[in-house]
Amino acid sequence: MSLVDPHVSDPSYTKRNAIYVPSGEGTSIWAAGDTYTLKVGADETNGSLTLLEATVPPGGGPDPHVHNDHDEAFYLLSGELEFLNGDEPVTAGAGGFFFVPRGTRHRFINRGYHAARMIFFFTPGGMEELLVASSTPATPPATPGVAPSVQEVRPLPIAELMVRYATEQLPDPDVS
Fold first, then answer.
1. Mean pLDDT for each 10-residue chunk of the chain (176 residues)?
2. pTM of this prediction?
3. Phi, psi (deg, nearest 5) at residue 51
4. DSSP letters along the chain, please?
5. CB 21 within 8 A of CB 53
């Protein structure tokens, strides 16, 4: 009988590759009137996914669009958002999950009186490059609506990034 643990030399027991991002940390940006905090992106996940935390104030949310090469998923932590599924509005509340397969027109908008909070992610990763390039760095205590104008040197124009990430702006259907 051996007294040596047979797993000591097994790298699956000792390899340390997990990623931990503490609460309140990550790169925060303002986009579409919302505050997004990038928790992890393609560089950290070997291209697997991009995960963000979002606060969407009343009236906030992006215009309708489609990602042709990325799936996107949303999980509401608090509040309520109206999502667009092609041409159909879907209202989701806290605890609701909304999955958007690539090639599907979508958007979300906060039609309520209070901010909504959610986490959302893209697979595969990489969309953070487009989000960061088309946004403003968040600089508290200002709010997204009064953010100072920041002129950054961007490696690629936003239109070129939209082509790279197969993303298109689309019209909002008449959903009334």
1. 64 84 92 92 96 95 93 98 96 98 96 96 93 82 54 59 80 68
2. 0.83
3. -125, 130
4. ---S-TTTT-HHHH--------TT-SEEEEETTEEEEEEE-TTTTTTS-EEEEEEE-TT--PPPEEESS-EEEEEEEESEEEEEETTEEEEEETT-EEEE-TT--EEEE--SSS-EEEEEEEESS-HHHHHHHTSEE--TTS-GGGPPP-----SS-HHHHHHHTTEEE-PPP---
5. no
